[in-house]
Amino acid sequence: MSNNTISITGSFSFGFNSGFYRREGIGNFKKVVLFFDADRKVIGFYFTNDSSAKGAFTVIHGKSGTTGSVTARSFFLNHELNKKEYQKKFPPEKVKYDDLDLFAIHLEGEDKQESGQQEVVQHSQ
Fold first, then answer.
1. Domain-by-domain residue ranges, the chain?
2. Is the pLDDT of residue 72 over 60?
């Protein structure tokens, strides 16, 4: 049974588990731009093939072609995220931000605005 989750690992990485990887076609992308809303503890993922995308990290595809990951040490350190505190699996949610389609994970449980819209801010530098 596959998992439709994004994991935070103990090695400053995000893991794209098999269900999410397959369902969302992550194998078709080379880069991911990370966004962070510090007040609400939400991380956004924008997958792209634009090699010049500002702040983009390289997506590492598993040998089996069913999972992927991204090592983002600078992202964790920049935003003072304790990888051990958040080391677990998170269900991603599709959200819109500045006309971009992102996947968001809530580090501290569900946190939706009353309107049902999700807002993710602060592009990672």
1. 6-106
2. yes
Could you give the maximum distance between any two Cα atoms of the chain, in Å? 42
What number of other Cβ atoms are within 10 A of residue 75's Cβ? 21
Question: From residue 124, how far is each of 2, 3, 23, 25 by CA, in Å?
Answer: 30, 27, 26, 23
CA-closest candidate to residue 92, choices 28, 35, 20, 36: 20
- pTM assigned to the model: 0.85
Checking phi first, is residue 55 left (phi over 0); if not, alpha (psi -120 to 50) or beta? left
Place of tokens 């971009």: 100
Looking at residue 109, what is its pLDDT? 66
